[in-house]
Amino acid sequence: MAETAKKENAVVRFGKRVAKFVRDCKGEVKKIVWPTPKAVFRNMAVVLVTMIVLGIFIFLLDTVFMNLLGLFMEISG
Rounded CA gap, 53 and 46, in Å? Predict the structure, then answer.
């Protein structure tokens, strides 16, 4: 007589997949290397300086273009 493998029902298979997913997630979280507070503040400073420089640049471009548009509107009107 051939031995037949008993097939697990859907609930058991789903439970095993969920358990494997949770184990894999825990393993991946353990691999994360968190930055030091010093590195976070250094990166934050770089971002803030970049934002300020770009903001000033966009403000200057906007001012120049608005003045040119105003000058053009006076000439043509």
Answer: 11
Type of residue at 16: K
Q: Give me the residue spans of the domains in the chain.
A: 10-76
Can you tell me the distance from the alpha carbon of 54 to that of 50, in angstroms, rounded to the nearest whole number?
6
Please write the tens of the pLDDT for every residue from 35-75.
999 999 999 999 999 999 999 999 999 999 999 998 888 87
Helix, strand, coil % in the chain, rounded to nearest 5: 80, 0, 20
3-state secondary structure of 44: helix
SS (H, E, C) 12-26: HHHHHHHHHHHHHHH
